[in-house]
Protein 1
Amino acid sequence: MKLACSSKLAPGNTFEEKLASLGALGYQGIEARVMEDAATPERIDRMEEALSASPVEVCSVIVPSPVYMSPLDSKAALREKVKNAKRALDVGSRLGGGVFITPEYCAQQPLPLWDRPEPLSARDRDRELLLGLLSEVADYAEKVSAVAVLEPINRYETRFYHTIEEVASVCNQVGSPRVKMVIDFFHMNIEEADIAASIEAGGDLVYHVQLGDSNRELPGRGHTDFGAGFAALRRIGYERYMALECRVPEQPERDLQACAAYLRSCIEETSTR
C-alpha cells in the first residue's frame, strides 16, 4: 500500500510545486483535483509534463463541477451528468488513476437526524436513472481506457448510496470491469458497523482508498482504528494508493510529514493483525 495526498492539501501554488513538496514529505502519489472549467487540454498537457519529471504519480482524479450538486432526477439531468462524467474520464485517461463519478453530492436538507434514509439506488425510478448514467460511463471508460470509481458517501452528503454494500450492488449491476469503488475512512466511520468487515466484503471492487479520521482531520487526530482497516485491505490484496482527503492542515509541511510517518506505522502493524 502506497501513500498519496489530495492536491488541495499539498503545499505549493502550482501542480509542479505540489508534486515536489509531496515527494519531499514522503508521499508517492497525488489525488489530482482539477476544476471542470480549468480542465483544458493545455492545462492537462502541463500536468503531464510535470508528471513525466516527477516520481510522484496521479493515483486518482476528481473534476469538481456544479453538475455534481444538481439532482439526478430526469433524463435532462442524466444527459448533463453524462457529459460531465465524460470530461472527467478524458482527464483521467491522460493523467491516470481512478476517476471519481458522483451522481449527486450536496448537503442534505432536511438533515436525516435519526433514521438512515433508504438510498435512492434501491428505488426503481432512481435506480434506472443511476444505471443509465453508469452504463454510459462504463462504455466511455472502455473507449478511453479509464477506470471510473464510485464512492459510498454518508447520508448527510448524498442520497444515492451510503455503504460499501450498496455501492458493490450497483457495481455488480453495471457489470463492467471499468466501474469500481473508492472507499473513504471518514464516510465508513459514519455508515459502516464494522469497517474491517465491510472492506473485506468489498473485495476486489475496491480500487482506491481515501483517508480522513473520524472528525475529518488528518489520520491520527481522531478515533478511527486505521490499523484494523489497513489489515483488512491487506487481506483483500489491496496494493494501490491510500490518499489523504480531509481538512487542510494548519502547518502543511510539518503535519503532512508527521501524518505519513503515522500511516506507515499503521501499515507496518498490519503484519501482526
Note: The radius of gyration is 18 Å.
Protein 2
Amino acid sequence: MLRTAPLLFCLLGVACTGPDVRLAVTAVDSAGIQIVTNPSLDVPGWAMEPDPVLQLGTVDEEGPEQFFRVSAARRLSNGELAIHDGSREIRVFDEDGSWVRSFGREGEGPGEYRGPGRMFRLRGDTLAIWDTRLRRLTVLDYQGAVLRTISPMSIGRRPQILTVLPDGSTLFEDEIFLGYNPTEYTQQYSNFLLYGPDGQIRDSLPVQPRVEVALWGEGPLAGPRLFDEGTQLAGDWSGYWVATTKAPEIGRYSLSGVLEMLVRWPPDDRTVPDDASELSLAEQLASLGPGVDPEPLTRMHRNREVPALYPSHGPIVVDAVNHLWVQRFEPPGTLGPSEWRVFDPEGRLTATANIPRGHRIFDIGEDYVLALGRDEFDVEYIRLFRLTRS
C-alpha cells in the first residue's frame, strides 16, 4: 500500500493558455436542438500527476487489500474509498489507505450480491449498487446499512444501468437481441427505460443503435467490426449522452428522451494505415494466456474487413461536476498516456487530460481521478491520481 497525505483540492491560479472556450459556436435548429460547434482542439491541458497519491492492492493471498475482479469504486465526501470486487464485499478505506470497515457478502438476501456491477454515490454518501445477476439495486448508507432495494419490473435480458437519480429512479439501457449472422454484420439496438423509485417503468425512451456484430465463436466472422467502438453511453442526474463514434459528435438527451444538444468538434486524422490490422492482431495475441491456441483468433481476425477510418473517439465518462470526458481513440501500437477531452455542461471543449494507459476509470472528482490498474503479473490496484483543473 502506498500512503500519502490527504488529497487537497486547490486551483493554483496558473494562467490558462489557448483559445477562450466561450468561442464555441452555438446555434439552435428548427427542432429546438442546441448545436454546439467547437472550432478548435487547442485547449489548455489539466495537470494530472502520473504517479498515484494513493495505491491500494497487494500480491498477498488474503487481507482487505487483496482485490479480485474489481467492479466499482467511489470516493466519499470525507475522502474514504468504497471498493466492490468479486468477493461480493464492499470494503472501505480511509484517505490514508487504512482499512476501515467492510459490508456485503455472497448471497441473495438484503445486502448480499451475486453479480456486482456499477456503484453510484448519491447525496449524503449514500451508495447504490446494481447487481447484474439478481437484477436489483441496493441502496445503503455509508456504514453499509440497507435502506431499500429496487427491482425494475419487466426488465430485459441484458440490462445495463446508466444512472441513479436522487429520488431512487433509475435509467437503464436494454439490448434488443436481433441474432447473429455468420457472414454479415447485423446492427444491434438498445431500448432506454426510465424506472421510478418503486421499480415501476415510468417511460420508454428512443431506441439507439449499438454495435454491429457477426457470429460469436468460430466462423468466417466473429464479434464486432474491426476497430469498432460501438455506441458510447454516459448518464448523470439530469440526462444522458449518446455517441455513435461514427463522427466527432455527441448527443445530449433529457430524462424524457428528448434530444436537447449536439456537441461537435474538429475531427482527428482517422485514416487506417496499412499495418493497422497486423498491429492489432499482435496486441491481441500478446494478451492471450499461456497454453491458449492462437490459431482461432488469428483466423477470425483476418476474416474481418479492415475499415477505412478509425472511430471518432473511445469511451465517455461524466465527472462529479457534470463535465463530459471523451477518450481520444487509441490506434493499435499507441504508446504513452491516454488522452481525454473534457467538455463543460454547455458542450464547450474546455481542456485535455492525460491518464496513464491501461486504467479503467471509476470516479472523477474536482481534484482526483480514481481508477483500476494492473501490474505485469495482472495484480489489481486501485489508484487515486491528483488532478488540477487550471
Note: The CA atoms of residues 230 and 295 lie 26 Å apart.
Protein 3
Amino acid sequence: MRALSALLGVETLVGKGPSPSFTRAHLLLAFLNIGTNEVIGRQALARESGLGEGAARTVLRRLREGGYVDVNASGAFLTKKGRGLFQLLQGKLLPFVELDNSRLTVGREQAALGVRGGSHRLGNGIPQRDSAIMVGASAPTTYEIRGSRFTVPGGSNDCEKDFPSGAWGLLKKRLILRNGDIVIVCGAQDGLKAKLGALSAALTLL
C-alpha cells in the first residue's frame, strides 16, 4: 500500500492543467529513466521515454512541482523524496526484459515486465489489455507465477511445457520470480512502445 500511495502521488500530476500529450505510463517511464540513469539530460529523457521535447519539459516541471525531481546544468536527477519512491517501485516492479519476436505474445518487438505480488489484482485481464492498447502497443499476454510455473489464468497451467521457447529461461534468469508474481509480455512495432504497453498494463496491478 505504501508503494501504491506513493505512485498515485506521481500519477495525480498528470491531471493538472490542460490535457497532457503523454500518459501515466510515459510519466512513470520518465521517472524510472531518471532514477536508473541518476542524471539525464532532457533530450535523452525525451528519447528514452517516448516524449516530445515539449512533453518532456512538462513532465520535468510536474515532477519538480511534486518534489520528486530536480534539475541542474547536467540534467535531471531524483530528490530524496524521489529516491524513496524509486526504491519502493523497485520492490514492486521487476526490471524490463527485452524479447525478440518470441512466442510469448504478439508483436515484432517485445518487452516483459514483472509485478511483484500482482496476482491478487489480476482479474480477467481486460484492464491490462486496454491499457496497453491505449499507448499504441498490442494486447499483452499476462502470465501468473504459480509455484515455479508460468501459467495463464483460465488457460495453460504450465506454459513452458505447452509453449516451448528459450524466452522462458531468459525471464527466469533476469527476474527473480515468486509465487503470486505477474509477468506482462507486450509487443509492438518498436521496443519503446512495447515497454510503454507493458508498463501501462502493470499500472493496473499496483
Note: The longest helix spans residues 24-37.
Protein 4
Amino acid sequence: MRAIKNTAKYLLGVLIRLFFYLRRSRLFWLYWLNREARIVFLRQKPQLDYVQRRILADLKRDGSALSSLDELFPGENFLEVFKKYMNEIYPFAKPNHPTKKFLLTMWNMEPLLDLNNPFVKFSLDEKILDIVNSHVGMQYKFYIMSLNETLVATGSESLASQRWHRDPEDVRVVKIFIYLNDVDENAGPFMYIMKSHFLGKWSKIFPARPPFSAYPPDGAIDKIIPKEYIKECTGKAGTVIFCETTGLHKGGFCKEKPRIMFTAGYYSSAAVTQLLLSLPKNFSDNFAELSQVAKYALLPNHGPLATYLYKQRRKFMKKGEF
C-alpha cells in the first residue's frame, strides 16, 4: 500500500513538472494560451505618447526602464497623494511577510483592490497598462501589489528577494516599482541584469525551472555577467521602474537607511499563480467605471486543472518533497 502511495506521489510530481513545462514553452504560451489576449490587444492597439514610447524602447532593449511620476503624469502630484495615503497607514505597518523578515508591510499578503486607493488607480491607469501591454504584445492581468519598507540590515547576509533571482509566475512577468523616499546606494536600490529578459542576451543564464524560480549561487553572477550589464537603480522619491522580472533582478540591501517602495505586478492569461489581491463586496458596482483595458486586467484566468495543480505544487513545496 505504501509503495502504491509513493508511486502515486512520484507520478503526480512528474505531472506537475510536465504541466508547468508545457505551459511555459514559448510557442504554446504565445500562440495558444495567450491567443485571445494577443487578438484583443491587436484590435485595440494603443497610441503611445513620447514618454511611453521611450520607456517601451528601453524595456524592449534592456528589460528595464526608468521614469518618474512627474514625467508620466505631469502636474498631477501623484507623489504627494501617495505619501499622504502612506502616512495614514504607516503606523499599522508590521513585519508579517512569511519569508522576508527585513520588510515592514503596510498591507496584508492579499491587499484589498479598493478603486479609491491611489496605488490601485495608478496600477490600473490606461497609460500604465498600455506600456505593459505594448511591451509583451498582448493584454496582461494585474495580479499583485505591495507597499513595503525595507529595513536597514542588521547582518551581512542577503536573503530571499535580496538575492539574484527570476520570478517564476509566468514566461514574462512585468512589475512596476515606485520609490517613495530617496534611494541611493546605501538605501538598497533595486538591481537588474540588463538583457536578461525574454529573448535578451542573458535570457538563458540561470533559467527558472518551472514551477520554481532561479537563484544563482552567491558570486556566480559576478563571474559571468560583465559589470556594465548590472544596473543599480538609484533615484529620488517618485522614481518609477518598469521591469521584466523574469529577468535576473534583486531587491536592495539597505546598509544605512531604509527604502520605501510600492510594487505592482502583471502576468499573462497563461499564468497559474493565484490572484494575490482580494476584492471588496461592492467591487462589481465600480467595475463599469473602469476602462476596457483595466477591465481585462482584472479578469480571472485560472481553470480548474491549473488551480488544482498549483495547489498541489504548493503542498509539495511545504513538505519539501518537490
Note: The chain has one domain: 47-301.
